[in-house]
């Protein structure tokens, strides 16, 4: 069957959409990499309390994402554009991100914890205002199966570049200053500027509101006008209906959440691996380059694999490759050393596929869903963002639980401590064996994904 052909995507649209991942990648990467370490080893906050800060902020994110998704759909239906919530995100996210890493020196741990919690919750809110509509855009920009893969491939190329930039460059900027407080502040300031540039560029491709649509009342399938302001609980009911009503969406989301949990755990563990296993805090930059460098190079190759074998099969291949890298990393617990670079490079090549392919599959799921139901791309995008956020957040939470159970000793800036062997073992397993177990579960859920190219192209 011939592929559906819609209006082609211009280079300008592709580039500007992809640049949005400078912001989303930066916000997802840097806090995931250094925030727990900032809380435990600079602000002197206990590991479980540090985990609670990250988890509470992300739980809030999960709570508001379905609401933002519903409001985004409503804005599209009544005004012809998702632009308004995205503008709020563009304005607020850089300031809230900077505030998260701007705790004044000498503030007591309890007050410092409250400061970071409030700032990070605000940052998560502004991030969702941008991210949820941003995820919904590809299904609206083109109806073409292959064009979406092309668009999302370049988004992931920029995303991986952003992860490399923030994950590698952030700790390097921090290390330029003798004061950890000043180092984190300058790191956050530079990062906030790059985040703003990326998300401000992406918003330029979003249609402006159509004055002729303002105040209109869209009609459902049965001809009943919807209320102008749906009750808050309706957003959650609609999200549940969307999740319940699409089996491909459930399978894809479950897989992505489990893999987000995997990468979130490894991301949060990397700084601890560098400090307590490789005995070099700066080695986190090397770990990041080894992980993201290959991903940046091979991301377009996964597009070719998907074209030959299908997106879902290519996704499975990438996941198995990542699992193999996790299994090869397990000896790190008993034989620490820079040999770990080799499996990390393999994981990096697989990681590109694990990002490109599900993000390219999501617009297909949304498009198929829209054929039989009222358009709800924003609702599905909100549920997706909530799941992605939960996965990444729980990764940091799992790490803090392991640290607490294994006897990890927190410290304030300038204070030297010695970690027990049990804590070092816990760090190593958090970077290898636990992620491997999560990847096995993700392969089970991916096996339940039933949507194929012919299903997407069928009109």
From TrEMBL:
One of its GO terms (molecular function) is symporter activity. The keyword Membrane applies. One of its GO terms (cellular component) is plasma membrane. The chain crosses the membrane at residues 17-39, 45-64, 85-107, 113-137, 149-169, 181-206, 251-277, 283-302, 314-334, 340-362, 383-405, 425-446. Pfam families: MFS_2 (PF13347). Keywords: Membrane, Transmembrane, Transmembrane helix. Coiled coil: none annotated. This is Na+/melibiose symporter.
């Amino acid at each position: 069957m011939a592929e559906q052909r819609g209006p082609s995507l211009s280079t300008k649209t592709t580039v500007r959409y992809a640049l949005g991942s400078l912001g989303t990648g930066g916000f997802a990467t840097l806090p995931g990499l250094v925030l727990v370490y900032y809380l435990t080893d600079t602000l002197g906050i206990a590991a479980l309390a540090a985990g609670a800060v990250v988890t509470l902020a992300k739980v809030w994110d999960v709570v508001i994402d379905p609401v933002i998704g519903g409001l985004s759909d409503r804005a599209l239906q009544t005004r012809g554009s998702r632009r308004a919530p995205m503008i709020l995100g563009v304005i607020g996210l850089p300031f809230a991100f900077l505030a998260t890493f701007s705790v004044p020196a000498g503030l007591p741990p309890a007050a410092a914890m409250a400061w970071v919690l409030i700032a990070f919750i605000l940052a998560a809110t502004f991030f969702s205002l941008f991210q949820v509509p941003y995820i919904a855009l590809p299904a609206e920009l083109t109806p073409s199966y292959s064009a979406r893969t092309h668009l999302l491939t370049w988004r992931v190329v920029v995303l991986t570049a952003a992860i490399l930039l923030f994950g590698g460059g952030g700790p390097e900027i921090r290390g330029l200053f003798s004061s950890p407080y000043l180092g984190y502040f300058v790191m956050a300031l530079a990062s906030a500027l790059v985040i703003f540039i990326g998300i401000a560029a992406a918003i330029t491709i979003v249609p402006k509101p159509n004055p002729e649509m303002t105040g209109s009342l869209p009609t459902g399938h049965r001809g009943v006008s919807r209320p102008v302001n749906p009750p808050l609980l309706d957003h959650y009911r609609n999200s549940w209906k969307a999740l319940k009503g699409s089996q491909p969406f459930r399978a894809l989301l479950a897989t992505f959440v489990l893999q987000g949990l995997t990468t979130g755990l490894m991301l949060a563990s990397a700084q601890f691996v560098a400090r307590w296993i490789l005995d070099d805090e700066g080695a986190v930059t090397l770990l990041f380059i080894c992980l993201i460098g290959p991903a940046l190079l091979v991301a377009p190759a996964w597009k070719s694999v998907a074209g030959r074998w299908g997106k879902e099969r290519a996704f499975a291949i990438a996941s198995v490759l990542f699992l193999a890298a996790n299994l090869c990393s397990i000896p790190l617990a008993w034989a620490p050393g820079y040999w770990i670079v080799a499996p990390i490079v393999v994981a990096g090549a697989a990681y590109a596929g694990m990002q490109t392919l599900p993000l390219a599959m999501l617009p297909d799921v949304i498009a198929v869903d829209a054929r039989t139901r009222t358009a709800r791309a924003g609702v599905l995008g909100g549920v997706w963002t909530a799941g992605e956020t939960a996965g990444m957040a729980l990764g940091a939470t799992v790490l803090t639980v392991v640290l607490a159970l294994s006897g990890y000793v927190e410290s304030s800036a300038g204070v030297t401590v010695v970690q027990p062997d049990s804590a070092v073992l816990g760090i190593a397993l958090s970077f290898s064996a636990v992620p491997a177990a999560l990847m096995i579960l993700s392969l089970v859920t991916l096996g339940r994904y039933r949507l194929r190219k012919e299903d997407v192209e069928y009109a």
